[in-house]
Amino acid sequence: MRVDQEVANLSSWLQKQVEAAGAQGVTFGLSGGLDSAVVAGLAVRALGSKALGLILPCESAPEDREDALLVAKTFNLPVREYDLTPIFRQFSTVIGDFVPNRLAQANLKARLRMNTLYLVANHFNSLVVGTSNLSEITVGYFTKWGDSACDLWLLANYSKGQVRQLAQALQVPERILNKVPTAGLWPGQTDESELGVSYQEIEAYLNDEFLPLQVKRRIRELSAKNEHKRRFPPSPEQDI
């Protein structure tokens, strides 16, 4: 991959998408992770001050906010911050007849963030940019109608390893480059422990490289299980 050329192509594509939509810019979640840092770098290159990052803590680790602010400072990115923790906790009083399990609560956090992104984006007439990468999309590692809900999926054709290359070309801070991938859904949560496979193994699968049979099976199982996330909801005329 010619990384510098890819950075230029992605920045140009993003600019053209905004112009074609008649939008004023882009809005995206700034989590403090690698993928959102790359989106930030590309968005600023393409649109300058018309790029807006939202920092949306929701019972989040303080270091995630610090990392998000570091990315914003590095790229001179305008940011807004909204703490969604009170809204998230209010759901416990609204839904009082049961306590949602951990996964349901984690998905709610992602959906609250996307609601906030669209609220702000609608107000400023901007497009919402998703931060999921090809590795995550392949195995369905995202929340349906949460972080998958966006107007543009900027990194959808790039594996986690390729996103890392883009990050290096954009000079994303080392602290972000070396950070263990996590969605920050609960204390101690990491992407790879939840998936049961590593990003390196997913990349090898995408490149049709040798992998142990049990790893291939796990990736295929995740992909099949989460296929519904990558499609529009089915309607009767498709099956009748």
Topology summary:
Elements (H helix, E strand, L loop, with lengths): L2 H19 L3 E5 L4 H14 L3 E5 L6 H14 L3 E3 L3 H10 L7 H23 L1 E5 L3 H6 L12 E2 L6 H11 L3 H4 L13 H5 L3 H8 L6 H13 L15
Parallel strand pairs: 1-2, 1-4, 2-3, 4-5
| Helix share bin | 40-55%
Give the name of the CATH architecture: 3-Layer(aba) Sandwich
By CATH, the topology is Rossmann fold
CATH class: Alpha Beta
| Alpha plus pi helix count | 11
Query: What string gives the helices and strands in order?
Result: HEHEHEHHEHEHHHHH
- Taking the alpha carbons of the first and last residues, their distance comes to 45 Å
SSE class: alpha/beta
What's the count of strands?
5
CATH superfamily, called what?
Answer: HUPs
Mean pLDDT, as a whole number?
Answer: 95
Q: What is the global morphology?
A: globular
**Looking across the biggest beta sheet, what order are the strands in?**
3-2-1-4-5
Q: How many whole angstroms does the radius of gyration measure?
A: 18 Å
What do you see in this structure?
By secondary structure, this protein is an alpha/beta fold. The chain has one domain (3-238): Rossmann fold, CATH 3.40.50. The chain has 11 helices and 5 strands. The chain has helices spanning 3-21, 34-47, 62-75, 85-94, 102-124, 134-139, 160-170, 174-177, 191-195, 199-206, 213-225; strands at residues 25-29, 51-55, 79-81, 126-130, 152-153. A 5-stranded parallel beta sheet has the order 3-2-1-4-5, with helices on both faces. Helix 6 (134-139) links the parallel strand 4 (126-130) and strand 5 (152-153). It starts with a helix and ends in a 15-residue tail after the last helix.
